[in-house]
Amino acid sequence: MSKQPSIFGGAAIIASVCIGAGMLGLPTSGAGAWTVWSTIAITLTMVVMTLSGWLLLEAYKHYDTRASFNTATKNLLGSGANIINNISVYFVGGILLYAYTTASGNILSGLTESFFTLDSRYWSILFVLVFSFLVWHSTRVVDRISVLLVIFMALTFIFSTFGLTANIDINTLLDKTNLGSNDTNYGIYAMGLLPVALTSFGYHHSVATMRAYYGEERKAKLAILVGTGIALAIYLLWVLSIFGNLPRDQFAPIIAEDGNLDVLLAALNSVIESESVKHTLNAFSIAAILSSFIGVGLGVFDFLADFFKFDNTKSGRAKSWAVTFLPPLVLSVLFPLGFLKAIGYAGAAATIWTCIIPGLLAYKSRKLPDGEKGFKVAGGMFTIVLVIVFGIVTALFHFLSMFNVLPVFKG
Q: Which residues span the membrane (predicted)?
C-alpha cells in the first residue's frame, strides 16, 4: 500500500507558491494602516483567500482529479467567463514579470553604484536575459534553481528577521514616536493594503494540484489552510520586524517613489546598525525577486506555449520565451511604474480568479443534481457572497485609491 502524502508536504507547496516578491510590498502598502490595522487587513485577506480556495475544491469535486481551473470554468460558467478568467490570469502574470523586472534593475543599480554606475534599465535587461534563459532551457533547470533559491531565501529571511526583531523598538512599532502627527487615522488606510495582500495569497492555480496530490478534497482543504497559515505567520513577522525598526514617517520617500524596493532597502539600511543584517536583507530581497521571476515566468511561458500551440523544440521554446519575457521587459524599460503600483494592478486583476470566479463556480456547482453531496464549504451562501464581495471591494479600493477618491497615505 502506497504511503499517503503528508498534510505538511502539501502545505509547504501552498506556502511556497504564496511567498515571494509580493511580500516585499506589504510594509510600504501597510505604512498608513501601521501595525494593528495591517495585521487585521492581512489576516482578513488570508481567511477569505483560504475560503475561496476551498470553494474551488468544492467545484472541482464534480470532475476528474486531473481537471483544472480551465475545465471547471468553461463547463460551469461558459466560454465567455473562461476567456475573461484566462485574460486576467495572463494579465497578472505579465504585470508581475513587469514589476520584478523593474525592481531587479533598481536594486542591482543601487547595490553596485559604489563600484560603477550603470542605468537601472540596463540592469533590468541583463537580469531578464540571464535568468529567463533558465525558463527557456527547461522546467527541470527551473525546478533545481528554485529549490536552491527557496533554501537561500529561508536562511536569509531567518537571519535578517532575527536581526530586525532583536532591534524592535516598541514605541516605533506602536507609532508612539509619531504622536505629534495629525495623521493618526490608521484604519482608513487599511483599504489600500488589500490589493497587495491579496496578491500575496495567490495560490489558486495550485488548488487542482492539491486535489490531485491527495486524491480527495478534505486533505487538500487542510493543506490549503496550513499553507496559508504559514504564509500569514511569515508575512506578519516580516511586516512587524520592519515596522519595529523603520518609523512610520520615514516611509514618505519610499511612497513618493511608488514603493520602489531599492528605496525601501536604502531606508532600512539607514536605521540598521549591523552590516551583516543589511547585506542579508539585500540578499533576501534579490532572492525573493529572482525566485518569483522564474516561477511566474515558467507559469506564463507554459500558458502562452499552450495558447499559441508552440512546440517544445528549441525554436518553439524561443517563440514562447519571446512572447513571455519581451513585452514586460520593453514596457519596463520604456514605462517604468513603481513596484507597489504594479503589484496593486496585479491584485486588482487577481480578484477575478481568486475570489469572483471561485464564488461563482461554487454557486453553480451547488445547482447541479448532486451538488449538495460530498465536500461542501460551510457557511452556505454567506461564504460565497463574502468571497465575491471581498474581491469586488478589493479591486474597487485599488482604483479609488489610484484616482485619489480614497485617502492615500503619503508619509
A: 7-28, 34-57, 77-100, 120-138, 145-166, 186-203, 223-243, 283-308, 320-339, 345-363, 375-400
Task: Give Cα 163 to chain centroid, integer Å.
Answer: 24
Residues 6 or more apart whose CB falls under 8 angstroms from that of 380 comprise none
pTM for this prediction: 0.89
The rounded distance, in Å, linking the Cα atoms of 219 and 375 is 11
Closest CA to 26 of 230, 166, 195, 246: 195
pLDDT score at 181: 60
The alpha helices in 272-370, defined as continuous H runs, are 275-308, 314-334, 339-351, 357-366
Check: CB of residue 362 under 8 Å from CB of residue 381.
no
Q: What is the pLDDT of residue 197?
A: 95
Spatial contact of 301 and 135, defined as CB atoms under 8 Å apart? yes
Distance from C-alpha of 226 to C-alpha of 80, rounded to nearest angstrom:
34
CA distance 104 to 124: 6
- The residues of the chain scoring below 50 in pLDDT are 1
Under a CB-based contact definition with an 8 Å cutoff, are residues 150 and 288 in contact?
no
- Report residue 260 as a C-alpha cell: 520602489
> Distance between CA 91 and CA 86 in Å, rounded?
9
Residue 243, Cα to own-chain centre: how many angstroms?
A: 20
Of 257, 128, 200, the C-alpha closest to 394 is: 200
Element (H, E) at 257: none
Q: In angstroms, rounded to a whole number, what is the distance separating the alpha carbons of residues 116 and 5? A: 50
Cα atoms in the 13 Å half-sphere on the side-chain side of 331: 17
Residue 182 pLDDT: 60
Cα(317)–Cα(323) distance, integer angstroms? 10
7-403 under CATH 1.20.1740.10, yes or no:
yes
The residues spanned by each domain of the chain are 7-403
| Amino acid 143: pLDDT | 74
Q: Which residues contact 402 (CB under 8 A, 6 or more apart)?
A: 344
